[in-house]
Task: structure prediction
Amino acid sequence: MRVLTVFLVLAAVVAADPVTAVPEAEAKLAVKEFDAAYRKAKTIDEKQELIFNLHDVPSPYTVKRLAKLMRNSKPEIRNVAALALGGQGFDKHSAGDVLMKSFPKERKEVAVQTSILDAMAELKYYDYWPALKKSTGKEGRSAVVIRILLLLGSNKDYRAVPMLMEMFEVAMPKHVKWTTGVVNVDTGASGTADADAAKAAFNSKYGAGGSKAKAAATGKSRNFDARNFTTQIRACAKAITGEDFETDMDMQDWWVENYVDVARKIAVLNGLEGKKLDKAVRKAEKRLPSYKKEVEAARKKLEEQLEAEEEAARKKK
Result:
């Protein structure tokens, strides 16, 4: 219950004003008093409360103490230490680097990983890319994927646009795509008919039994299948772009219209400036015509495929 309370408190502070470090003497005293109280604390609840109080003592001394707590053997302690690091926005890089270093080590602790992601969102920390992009592609746990999407949306991270476009193709398609071998199905029905048909087609194509090929294909498709995250994907895309896309084609149209501007924003987030930034923008301008042709060709191919399927269905009747 204590951890839940901490999450609720965190939600109230995310929108706080820019953080400035407290005076050095005040920070040293706070950390010293924390250490004395922490040694006397007898329960996890008491320790968690003491740790989270450091959230409101932004200082290099606090970051150092919380970094040590992130190596504690108890996940309940690391969980709240991560949340407290979210309050260290006076130096989002030092606090964020501690969080990013801990993130891959918490693979077995979903609660700690989600707290790390929440803290990154509060910090407006951006140096998680491309590590989190890679993590999302392999991630099968909804709580972590949802927190990553919340982080990307909160930071208005345009680097996520290509990844979101891929997710949209799976989450809200006119055809259903299964990764590692593609099975396209459009029944024309509402509800879960397309998803059910896709699963049936997938099983039919890859066969029954325990073949390594099928196991690899099934695992990959399950991890990448984002239909369970439709609401979160749309919310993330809206937070970044300001648009509420209903289909993958809607988002693709937006991307074509804003291709160069998105490329510029991605370059800025990647730390490019001056001549390097100008070069990235020119590269996007040069790439745009061919990208438009690729989109048009893919649309035409999809239309032809759907027309062929409809014609085949009519002939069966």
